[in-house]
Amino acid sequence: MDEIKFETEFLNESFRKILGKSIFYRKDLQNLKNIVVMANHEKITDNDFYLLQEFEDGIQFEGLDVGRNVRYGTIVFTEDDSDVMEDIEKINSAPVNRLYFPSLKGLNLEMLDKLSDRFKYLVAGDALAYKEHFYTYYTKQEMKTILSKLEEMKNLIPENANDITKFMTVYKWIGIHAIYDTKGASIGGITKGYSHQEERENWYRITRSLLGVLEKGVAVCEGYSWSLVTCLNYIGIPARVVVGFFKGVPHGWIHVKIDGIWYNACLTGDYIDVIFHNPLNFCLRSDAYFKEKGFAFKKYEIDLDEKDEENFLEKCTKDYDRDGKGNLLNDESFFVDKYYKSLLNFYKLFLKKGLQNEEIKEDISEEREKRL
């Protein structure tokens, strides 16, 4: 049997008393509900908090009131915690050191400045700072870097812009700034340029993170997808990650809601065309179009009857009306800043040289420093 023994001794004592057993097992904890433990996060190890999440939807610390939910020693924010500033003192004095954001919509630089420097940040879907990876976090400075990029992107959007303008500004900004990095595609086998497994795993996570996509300029399909969803939600555009396959290979892309209609978009397939200002083949398309191109929707292909399938996830039934709304998806006006136009030009030059991704990244890094 699978015996459980926490690193934190008072947790062992607490559960012995709750269960009435000197030795307890995984199945014993799986049957417990709504457990309240007198605990201070500083006295409980991260490994124990991680272990606790296997058994409960959440654990409340008795007497802890920060104005929002607390789970596993982590303060959990809602998608739009507009009242956070009112609770800053409570949050800063709470005996926890992790903050979890399902969305960054309610977060801003002013709030970050007022939050304690001790906090570690978790962000939904982020491979460098997600609730399933408690061994890695974002620091306050890293969060400031990410939020600065989000604000930079947001400031490019004209006042009173419609949904399509907002979406395309984000889509093209990320497409220009982040290239697909094949080294991050898998941690299996031998990865070119890396001799140690730890380095491979780290790059695997970087290419699936906001920091990797927005700051380092590298991504794989999962990184593009989660970053797009986070950035779009930040500016008020509904979006969600889709998991499936492309020509039999596991793949991720997004659904985005424009003018009340859900569409598919895959920046992995479009980022080169964004760079070269070509027509975009995988932007705002229907399920039927994506399936024709080799995409398979994992969630849609579950054995469900038609009614249940419709309720499971709203489908994308239309392609965006390009003809009716002009050549909006490729309008040069989206590159509203000279910096982005110049970035586009030298990016084209590097690609014409036939440089590989690694060389492109090095040259881009040097060029960005000059231009910024």
Poorly predicted runs of 5 or more residues: 301-311, 332-340, 352-358, 367-372
Assembly status? single chain
Rg to the nearest angstrom? Answer: 23 Å
N-to-C terminal Cα separation, in Å?
A: 59 Å
Query: What count of helical segments does DSSP give?
Result: 15
Structure report:
Strands 12-11-10-9-13 form a five-stranded antiparallel β-sheet. A four-stranded mixed β-sheet has the order 3-4-5-6, with no helix packed on it. A two-stranded parallel sheet has the order 1-2. The longest helix has 15 residues, at 140-154. Mean pLDDT is 76; it is low at 301-311, 332-340, 352-358 and 367-372. The relative contact order is 0.07. Helices cover 40% and strands 14% of the residues. The N and C termini lie far apart (59 Å). Helix 3 (46-52) links the parallel strand 1 and strand 2 (60-61). It has 15 helices and 13 strands. It is globular, with a radius of gyration of 23 Å. The protein is α/β, with parallel strands linked by helices and 372 residues long. Helix 14 runs antiparallel to helix 15 (357-371).
Key attributes of the depicted protein:
372 residues; alpha/beta; four-stranded mixed beta sheet; 15 helices; 14% strand; globular; disordered C terminus
Question: How do the helices and strands line up, and which of them pair or pack?
Answer:
Elements lengths: L8 H11 L6 H5 L5 E2 L8 H7 L7 E2 L7 E3 L2 E3 L11 H6 L4 E4 L7 H6 L5 E4 L16 H15 L8 H15 L1 E2 L16 H10 L3 H7 L1 E2 L1 H14 L4 E8 L2 E10 L2 E5 L1 H10 L6 E3 L1 H6 L2 E3 L8 H7 L25 H15 L4 H15 L1
Parallel strand pairs: 1-2, 4-5, 5-6, 7-8
Antiparallel strand pairs: 3-4, 9-10, 9-13, 10-11, 11-12
